[in-house]
Specification:
globular; two-stranded antiparallel sheet; 6% strand; single chain; mainly alpha; 6 helices; Four Helix Bundle (Hemerythrin (Met), subunit A)
Length: 164
């Protein structure tokens, strides 16, 4: 794994998240909070989960001693969610853009949400963050369609490469 590739993934992640935020700006609050059976119970809950995961990984990657799981604390509006998501994705990209390639295989010690101690190389953690968001963005496409929103487009990695 190279830093150059991880930078591409971070750019892709920001690109795809920005597209999804654009979709979210087009839906109303009823669609935003509509109960839908998926990993989470609504578009809002799914978006907050993605933001929370990116945010806590940024805290861990930056070796912050005390991490905050936003899903337990953040109660913002749809607009505040999309603004925070864009900022978190931008901050993740910035972290990766400034990362020292010599440290990619260095293990990061962290605690999972259940308190369990864990350790993984930086490159695996960064790849995981992007992959995790990709998984849940796919769920959002299905959820949006279930609320009647049809104005979705591809956020696939291949589409990103075609537009580069």
């Amino acid at each position: 794994m190279t830093l150059s590739y991880l930078k591409e993934l971070a750019t892709y992640n920001l690109w795809a998240n920005t597209i999804v935020c654009g979709w979210l700006e087009q839906i109303d609050d009823t669609q935003w909070k509509q109960n839908i059976i998926s990993s989470f119970n609504s578009i809002q809950e799914t978006v907050l989960h993605i933001i929370s995961a990116e945010n806590i990984w940024l805290q861990r990657l930056n070796k912050e001693p005390k991490t905050i799981w936003l899903q337990n604390e953040f109660n913002g509006t749809k607009e505040e969610h999309t603004k925070l998501w864009k900022k978190t994705s931008t901050d993740l990209k910035s972290f990766i853009d400034n990362f020292n390639e010599n440290d990619l295989n260095t293990k990061l010690d962290f605690k999972r949400l259940n308190g369990e101690a864990y350790s993984m190389p930086f490159y695996q953690l960064i790849a995981h963050v992007v992959n995790h968001a990709t998984y849940h963005r796919g769920q959002l496409v299905t959820m949006l369609r279930q609320t009647g929103f049809k104005n979705v487009s591809s956020t696939d990695l291949l589409e990103f490469y075609r537009k580069m």
